Design the sequence.
């Protein structure tokens, strides 16, 4: 793929990288590439970070035909730039695109585009544990048209944001509200796809949870409101009586790259890990019996986020006395050390730019 580069003449002043939040600072450049039916993907370019000018009838504004991905770049102690399993994001992008009728993007083009934009803005990669350069690739439908059908034109873009922890709690446990009123996804829907509609569907419950003092919601399945699916921006894991369980992928759960990574890590450590349907009632019962040892969420943005408390109806389930468990800490340490190139990557997960 040939990428034209137009560098900015006005480099932004970099903010202090000490207390980065999540997703409110953007770098100097962006990647953009167009798709036109019959012509495929074309005109890959890197340009100064700037607003878009779009017709008000642009389809993405009306019917939400869009997708996004999330991955991170890190600097290792030698100063090399590392990506973590970018091919997984490229593969998931195409799974999403297939579901919402958007054109496929070759895996190599995705990776080349990510490498090129990160390389140009590499001075924005923050150092420090828990910090990274968050990479947000996304595709929008751009036909100016009000009928409902797949668009014939699209834009694929990548923007970059230096970030710290997603939750203000950092690696400290978060409190989670188990949602009963709203559902995020249903079988046959788009729950497994990384598309904005899933997040739009989640905002109301998320806002309600926040106003009650909870960081996120735990979603139950859309049919029986019984089986545990995922947490707002993370997949979820439980350590129960020595073994680890995460909900199986039923079609309404996002297949997280970190979820897959944690499963692989646990297997190599010889810790029993299984993907199973687990109901909220079973979880409460395990907790009552003293068998619920740890709970944590996994995600690119959230990394590993221990859960200290679940609230379900009028029941409060406290996990590991509200403090991080040993296994959650071990996974966090190992994962972040591999991602930041501090220990050997025996799995071949990191990709040097
Ligand atoms: C990620 O973890 O990369 C995500 O896409 C979650 C996002 C909604 C913050």
Sequence:
């Amino acid at each position: 793929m040939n990428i034209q580069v137009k560098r900015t003449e006005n480099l932004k002043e970099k903010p202090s990288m000490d207390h980065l939040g999540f997703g409110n600072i953007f770098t100097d450049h962006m990647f953009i590439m167009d798709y036109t039916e019959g012509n495929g993907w074309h005109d890959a370019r890197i340009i100064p970070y700037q607003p878009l000018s779009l017709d008000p009838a642009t389809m993405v504004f009306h019917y939400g035909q869009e997708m996004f991905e999330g991955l991170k770049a890190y600097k290792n102690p030698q100063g090399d730039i590392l990506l973590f399993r970018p091919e997984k994001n490229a593969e998931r992008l195409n799974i999403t695109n297939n579901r919402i009728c958007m054109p496929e993007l070759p895996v190599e083009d995705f990776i080349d585009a990510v490498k090129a934009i990160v390389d140009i803005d590499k001075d924005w990669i923050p150092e420090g544990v828990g910090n990274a350069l968050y990479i947000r690739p996304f595709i929008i439908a751009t036909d100016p048209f009000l009928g409902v059908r797949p668009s014939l034109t699209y834009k694929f873009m990548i923007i970059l944001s230096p970030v710290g922890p997603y939750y203000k709690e950092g690696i400290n446990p978060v409190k989670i509200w188990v949602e009963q009123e709203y559902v995020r996804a249903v079988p046959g829907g788009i729950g497994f796809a990384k598309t904005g509609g899933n997040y739009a569907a989640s905002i109301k419950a998320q806002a309600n949870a926040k106003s009650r003092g909870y960081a996120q919601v735990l979603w139950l399945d859309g049919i029986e409101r019984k089986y545990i699916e995922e947490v707002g921006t993370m997949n979820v894991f439980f350590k129960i009586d020595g073994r680890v369980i995460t909900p199986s992928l039923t079609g309404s759960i996002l297949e997280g790259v970190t979820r897959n990574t944690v499963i692989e890590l646990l297997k190599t450590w010889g810790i029993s890990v299984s993907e199973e349907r687990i109901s909220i009632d079973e979880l409460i019962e395990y907790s009552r019996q003293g068998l619920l040892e740890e709970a944590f969420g996994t995600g690119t943005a959230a990394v590993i986020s221990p859960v200290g408390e679940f609230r379900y109806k009028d029941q409060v389930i406290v996990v590991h006395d509200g403090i991080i468990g040993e296994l959650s800490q071990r996974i966090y340490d190992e994962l972040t050390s591999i991602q930041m190139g501090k220990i050997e990557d025996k799995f071949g997960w990191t990709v040097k730019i």
In short: Residues 191 and 252 are 4 Å apart (CA to CA). The helical segments are 59-63, 86-99, 107-120, 196-211, 257-268, 280-288, 326-339. The chain has two domains: 4-164, 174-339.
